[in-house]
Amino acid sequence: LTGDDIREGLAAVISVKVSEPQFEGQTKTKLGNTEVKSFVQKVCNEQLTHWFEANPADAKVVVNKAVSSAQARIAARKARELV
To answer: Domain DNA topoisomerase type IIA subunit B: where (predicted)?
Structure first.
């Protein structure tokens, strides 16, 4: 499984207030503060772990979806290699 397999189809809204935001590039569409990214990843991982433990049936659905995505990705790669 890759991170893309797990994130496929995932939609999330996360709100973070940053006192001094730093953006990447001219368009200013991506936040460049690495400490914010680290914090959000840590909190999301902790909360998802708690949620999976409290909701094992739903966690199984998420895992099955990720496995299906991985299988589809591998099948697509094999199909491309045969052409």
So the answer is: 1-81
Region of poorest pLDDT, from 11-15, 42-46, 48-52, 74-78: 11-15
* Structure tokens, 4: 């893309």
CA distance linking residue 3 with residue 39, whole number of Å: 18
Q: Determine the 3-state secondary structure of 33 from DSSP.
A: coil
pTM recorded for the entire structure: 0.71
The conformation of residue 19, written as its DSSP 8-state character, comes to S
The model's pLDDT over 54-69, given as tens digits with 9 standing for 90+, comes to 999 999 999 999 999 9
Is residue 47 packed enough to be buried (19+ CB in 10 Å), middle (13-18) or exposed (0-12)? exposed
Contact 55, 61 (CB under 8 A): no
